[in-house]
From TrEMBL:
One of its GO terms (cellular component) is cytosol. Gene3D superfamilies: Peptidase C15, pyroglutamyl peptidase I-like. The gene is pcp. Homotetramer. PANTHER family: PROTEASE FAMILY C15 PYROGLUTAMYL-PEPTIDASE I-RELATED (PTHR23402), PYROGLUTAMYL-PEPTIDASE I (PTHR23402:SF1). This is Pyrrolidone-carboxylate peptidase. Removes 5-oxoproline from various penultimate amino acid residues except L-proline. It catalyses: Release of an N-terminal pyroglutamyl group from a polypeptide, the second amino acid generally not being Pro. It comes from Acidovorax soli. InterPro entries: Peptidase_C15, Peptidase_C15-like, Peptidase_C15-like_sf, PGP-I_bact-type, PGPEP1_Cys_AS, PGPEP1_Glu_AS. CDD domains: Peptidase_C15. The active site is at E93, C156, H181. It comes from the Bacteria.
């Protein structure tokens, strides 16, 4: 369900940060990405107001919901969140690739294999977030964080690539976006990250995303 304009926070006349999370998938009862997005709903960050919304873990439908949110809210900044079981840190994604290759079905039972997200679209898009500045801010808050070189090939990557294609083709000048993966919560599996720590870390990441119009130089690459 899309946020109704009358139900937006009182500061919604400010520029909007759209923060999305997914519904549970793969047999989990909760999805930490949605709990994290909800926790920051209405926060004032650098003259912007956070508006949180849920995306379905469904190929195609997730991008339709995201596009509708963009038309309604015209966010200055969009940060999509997703669950990444097996990761130990908040993972700021560098790149989305133009392929759906699902290891498990989505929440509607679809399991595309080696399909382009956007036929004839670019092979990949880089996120337009200041990922290194965000990394430094989260680490300084004492929360584990990393730059990730792959968002996978499930609905998370589908949304990151789709978001960046939307911004490239329909976004207004200055609109920026990207994706952050969130570890499991304690009780879902290991490794995990308590929700309060994820909230603290993402709060700092959003401040950095708003304030850093140009990214910083900071080593955060990978050898494999």
């Amino acid at each position: 369900m899309l946020p109704h304009p009358h139900h937006l926070p009182s500061g919604a006349s400010n520029p909007v940060i759209l923060l999305t999370g997914f519904d549970p998938f793969g047999g989990d009862a909760v999805n930490p990405s949605w709990l994290l997005a909800q926790a920051l709903q209405g926060q004032a960050i650098g003259g912007h107001t956070v508006v949180s919304a849920q995306l379905p873990t469904v190929f195609g439908q997730a991008l339709e919901r995201l596009a509708a949110l963009h038309r309604q809210l015209r966010p200055a900044l969009t940060v999509c969140l997703g669950q990444a079981g097996g990761r130990a840190a908040l993972s700021i994604e560098r790149i989305g690739i133009n392929v759906d290759d699902a290891r498990i079905p989505d929440n509607r039972g679809a399991q595309p294999i080696d399909q382009a997200i956007v036929p004839d679209g670019p092979a990949a898009y880089f996120a337009s977030l200041p990922i290194k500045a965000m990394l430094r801010a989260v680490l300084r808050a004492g929360v584990p964080c990393e730059v990730s070189q792959t968002a996978g090939t499930f609905v998370c990557n589908h949304v990151l690539y789709g978001l960046m294609h939307l911004l490239a083709t329909e976004g207004a000048a200055g609109m920026r976006g990207g994706f952050v993966h969130v570890p499991w919560l304690p009780g879902q599996g290991t490794p995990s990250l308590p929700l309060r720590d994820a909230v603290r870390g993402l709060h700092q990441a959003l401040w950095a995303a708003v304030l850093a119009r140009q990214d910083i130089a900071l080593g955060a690459g990978a050898t494999h």
